[in-house]
Amino acid sequence: MKKMMLLVMILITSMTLIACGGDEAGDKITIDFWHMSPVGSTSFSGMRSIINDFNESQDTYFVRGTGFSFWDYWDKINVAVASRTAPDIGLSTIDDVEARARSGVLYNISDLMASDTTDAPLEVDEFRQSQLDFATYQGDLYAMPFSATTRVLYYNLDMFAEEGLTEADVPETWDELKTIAKKFDVVEDGQLTRIGFDPTYGNATYHGWLWQNNLDFFDENKLPTLNTQAHIDVLEWIMNFNSEYTRTQLTTFGEGNQLLGINPFASQRVAMIVEVDGLYQIIKDAGATFNYGVAPIPIPEGGRRVNWGSGFSIEMYDNGKGEDEQRDGSFLFYKYLLSKDVQIRLAEVNGWIMSHISAMEEYVEGNPILEKLLAEVDYAVDKVYIPYAPSWHGNDWQPYYTEALSGTKTAAEALEAARLNYLQKKQNYDAVNP
Amino acid sequence: MAKTISMQKLKRQENMMGYLFASPWLLGLIVLGLFPIIASFYISFTNYDMISSPNFVGFANYQILFTNDDLFWKSLGNTFYHVAIAIPLGIVVGVSLALLLNNKIKGMSIYRTLFYLPNVVSIVAMTLLWLWLFQPNFGIVNEILAPLYKLFNMEPLRWHQAVETSKITLIIMGLWSAGGSMVIYLAQMQDIPTSLYESAEIDGANWIKKTIYITLPLMTPSIFFNFIMGIIGGFQVFTIAYIMTSGGPSRSTYYYAYYMFDKMIADQAMGMASAMAWILLVIVLIFTMIALRLNKYVVYLGEEA
Predict the structure, then answer these.
(1) pLDDT in tens, A147-175
(2) What pTM, to 2 d.p., does this model score?
(3) Out of A329, A411, B229, B259, which could bridge B75 as a Cys pair, Cβ 3.0 to 4.6 Å?
């Protein structure tokens, strides 16, 4: 009996210990870094060599990189941060740095910079103020911009040529957009088989179109401002852009795009689309052979040149354990990741536009599409963080937007319903958040 | 005396071994089950964004949900609709299938396997499959119904994409896995003594009479079991809506569990989400208790009961 008990105990202990495998770190201080290049992804080996180069450059620290796929990453990092088991360095979304900074889970980067005595300080000037603002809480930096996303107008040059148009005809205003877009519409047997442009396709959003009109969802007090005639006008412009076709024609066409499972611009079913910079990589990977170009998103009369740019932040997590050595080593690696050369390598590895300005200028040189994409980053604005509705542009807005687009509600009704919903959310949030 | 002591010792040892062997499960229950349950009960009285520590707010979450949250009532209403139709319909289909398959014809085991098969398919894969079957323009369902639409001169149904039909579409889709309960019904049907049928036959009863007076009454325990399980599962309906409709159109398939998920993930309001979970528990408990009370009137528990 005793032997059996012993056996069971040994089994349990060995199973517990098996998880704690060997480590390459040796006597070095281990720094955990979470990224989005998991084993098996195309960017894995590139990311690994970036980390290895750092590890080989010094003897004090050992960076252990862990990659998760983009879709898994957010759950992992959120749970880890909440349970104070976050990695030393990780990526996150830049628009809600404020929430984490307020909760005290991030190291104050400004403080670390102030006490940095090395001859390789963090080059804050190399990053855009618009992105740095999002990483700032109460005057101090709590994160750094890591990558930048931008949205542009992609246009199919082959289709332009068919219509006798050139790059000089690429629309710059809303009126031009509508006039030119209509040239590309193709209807066969009552079915749409190609359209010029649709303001709901790709990565075009209602708030993106609002911004161009100097409007927004919220005012400076973070109260919803959706009930003006100007808001209704923009929504109606979106709803009526292709109104010469029946709803059935448009839905059938849209569903055809879904069925193909390829971006409608890449499959040449639309002549122009508003998309993120990542579409460049998708078209490249798909081996598409058509000619295309990118341009700023057309703006309305009296509007401003702006696009919705999101991006990753890179953050140092403070798990409240007072690990000073760990923190100093992390900061060293942090600066390494944000240095010019490494930012170029990261861009090559991931296909992302990184945040380091001069690094990216060097990276895009000679590639006209990348050059234009980078130029638009300067006009990119991230969405504001609304504590009572963190997903204001997604979950909270989408049902009303769909109702307006499908004709269940008028523009005015949809906007009013959405506004009331935000107000109720705010009321409820304020009731439990003194 | 010496014998009793050694017996007691043996018993204790045996108990010890029992617990030891059960320990992985017990540990799992306490760590993965009991702890989160207690934690969520506490969190439901706090305001917790999952980053900073929870702040105690008393009954505020519950009060807000009941008095100032339109989506709470909307999602609850949708869920009640789903439960009220899906559960009875599921029973009817399950029992009917079982009656059909309770025959001695060739290749019966193949039919049984076929009807049970959908239960083995992952719910995500199943939902994606039905998404394309119900697809209004290219889907096979509308393709098959096309002559009917023509006959009645009506527009093809937009199934999960129209407010009027979205809920019922998801319910119809759920019926595909009625084979799961069918297996339980079938097991009980085959447990019914043949002598009962034989004596009924002597009295001149036909198939319908035998079904109504013998089969169905004797099957009430398994119907009841599936009813209870259906209620518990029905109130938690989530995956099919999440994948197929994203809660739309016009939030017509925005179920309670979906709203709870959004409260937690999108709004980062863990306290509110926990409160919703406890409210759901109470609702399910009430319905289960009512069902259990009804049990003695409708369920046949054998002669001695």
Answers:
(1) 999 999 999 999 999 999 999 999 999 99
(2) 0.85
(3) B259
* Chain A: closest CA distance from residue B144 (Å): 18
Task: Name the residue in chain A with its Cα closest to that of B19.
Answer: A5
Residue A178 backbone zone (phi > 0: left; psi -120 to 50: alpha; other: beta): alpha
Instruction: Report the pLDDT averaged over residues A185-206.
Output: 92
φ, ψ (nearest 5 deg) of residue A206: -60, -45
Chain B residue with the nearest C-alpha to that of A408: B250
Yes or no, beta carbons of A389 and B68 under 8 Å apart? no
Q: Is the pLDDT of residue A18 over 60?
A: no
Q: How far apart are CA B50 and CA B42, in angstroms?
A: 14
Q: How many domains does chain B contain in total?
A: 2
Is the separation of the CB atoms in A353 and A374 below 8 Å? yes
Is the Cβ of B87 closer than 8 Å to some Cβ of chain A? no
What residues of A are in contact with residue B246 (Cβ under 8 Å)?
398
Structure tokens at B145: 């119904």
| Interface check A399 vs B, CB under 8 A | yes
Flag whether residue B206 sits within 8 Å of chain A, measured between CB atoms.
Answer: no
Domain of residue B145 covers 61-298
Paired tokens of A67: 């990659």
Q: Are A275 and A263 in contact (CB under 8 A)?
A: yes
Q: Say whether both B94 and B151 belong to one domain.
A: yes
- Please identify among residues 131-150 of chain B the ones whose CB lies closer than 8 Å to any CB of chain A: 135-138
Task: Indicate if the alpha-carbon torsion angle A287, A288, A292, A296 is positive or negative.
Answer: negative
Domains recognised in chain A with CATH numbers: 26-149+310-381 (3.40.190.10), 151-305+384-432 (3.40.190.10)
* Chain B neighbors of A4, CB-CB under 8 A: 17
In a domain, B191, yes or no: yes
CB-based contact A84:A51 (threshold 8 Å): no
Same domain, B109 and B28: no
Nearest Cα of chain B lies from the Cα of A386 at a distance, in angstroms, of: 10
Number of Cβ within a 10 Å radius of residue A185: 17
* Domain co-membership, B235 together with B171: yes
For B139-173, b/e burial (b = at least 16 CB within 10 A) is bebbeeeeeeeeeeeeebbbbbbbbebbbbbbbbb
Within an 8 Å CB–CB cutoff, is residue B70 touching chain A?
Answer: yes
CB A422, CB A224: distance < 8 Å = yes
Of A104, A395, A431, the CB nearest to B64: A431
**Interchain proximity B262–A433, CB inside 8 Å:** no
Nearest of B149, B133, B150 to residue B141 by alpha carbon: B133
For residues A122-133, give the mean pLDDT: 92
Assigned domain for B203 exists: yes
Which of A8, A103, A424 is opposite residue B52, by nearest beta carbon?
A103
Answer yes or no: do B14 and B99 share one domain. Answer: no
B64–A contact, CB cutoff 8 A = yes
Kindly state whether residues B39 and B71 are assigned to the same domain.
no
Chain A hits for B20, Cβ within 8 Å:
5, 8
Q: Are residues B13 and B139 in the same domain?
A: no
Residue B169 has pLDDT above 90, yes or no: yes
